[in-house]
Write a structure and sequence with these properties.
By secondary structure, the protein is mostly helical. The chain has one domain. About 75% of the residues lie in helices and about 0% in strands. It has four helices and no strands. The model has no long low-confidence stretch (mean pLDDT about 90).
Length: about 100
């Protein structure tokens, strides 16, 4: 599996989790649209940044700990963001 695919899956899982996990879904739904977007981007940065950091620490083998690996992490973040927002638009509950 490619890093981009793994990141896209993580973005999809986050989108589904924010919409359907009881309790969390209620809290997230009560936030303003601006805060929701900010929180989702921060969660995606945390996931991809965490994966990159764990790769550099030798605990994961997703990214090489080089400049090229950092660029791959940026590409993975973009893939996660696109997948996340696509799923969000498809499953968004009517207000």
């Amino acid at each position: 599996m490619s890093v981009e695919l793994i990141s896209a899956i993580a973005g999809i899982v986050l989108s589904l989790a924010f919409e359907f996990i009881p309790g969390f879904e209620k809290w997230y739904g009560a936030q303003s649209e601006q805060y929701k977007r900010l929180f989702m981007v921060a969660a995606l940065v945390l996931v991809v940044g965490g994966a990159y950091g764990l790769s550099c620490a030798g605990l994961l083998a997703l990214f090489p700990c080089t400049g090229a690996g950092a660029w791959l992490a940026v590409q993975a973040f973009i893939a996660a963001l696109v997948a996340n927002q696509s799923v969000h638009l498809v499953i968004k509950k009517a207000e």
